[in-house]
Amino acid sequence: MIPQALFFYFAGMTILSAIVAIAAPNLVFSALSLLVTFIHIAGLYILLHAEFVAAVQIIVYAGAILVLYLFVLMLFNPKSESVGHGVPFYLHQQFPVAIFLGLVLFGLMTLAVFRTEILGQKNVMPTAVTTVARGVRQSLGNTQAIGNALYTDFIFPFEIASLILLVGLIGAILLAGRHLERKKQ
Q1: Is the pTM of this model over 0.85?
Q2: C-beta neighbour count of 83 within 10 angstroms
Q3: Is the distance from CB of 21 to CB of 33 less than 8 angstroms?
């Protein structure tokens, strides 16, 4: 009973704080509600017995990524630039694209729900991953299993993700430099 109540609490707070992160008029409030979202997602990971992923969620997303967002907010000073010009949100050019992408995401989620078996067996904990190294069968813990999978089977997507982060970092530096040049003139 208590894990279900915790799940509903974490899920509800995640959804509510994500809505506030999107709809808040003040970008600092939006970033803080994004922090609340990240923390509650980590709580969901803990309920799934993925403690390592929860710790990484807190350290990487709630720590590093959110601080990066706040630095970008401080660099660009969004109050000096008017974005909407008083136009309702449904008349913006991005609104049809947002609706289309939202429907695609909803369709993919629906497909994932109906094409996969979500519910496992009751009261059955997942077994530890076992490997055979040098002829000895050994059981890996949660962290070791993630590291083993990450650096063997998923090394290419891992390296692509680091390349994408590097490109994003260079783009943010270039955008900040252009913004500062325009401000000087």
Answers
A1: no
A2: 7
A3: yes
pLDDT tens track for 94-143: 778 888 988 998 888 888 777 766 555 555 555 555 555 555 556 667 77
Query: Which amino acid is residue 78, in one-letter code?
Result: P
* Three-class DSSP category at 141: coil
Phi-psi region of 47 (alpha: psi -120 to 50; beta: other; left: phi over 0): alpha
Q: Which CATH class is domain 1-78?
A: mainly alpha
Q: Where are the beta strands (DSSP E) in the chain?
A: 129-133, 136-140
Give me the torsion for CA of 58, 60, 62, 68, rounded to 10°.
170
Q: What would the pLDDT profile of 32-53 be if each residue is shown by its tens digit?
A: 899 999 999 999 999 988 888 8
On whether the CB atoms of residues 31 and 69 are closer than 8 A, the answer is yes
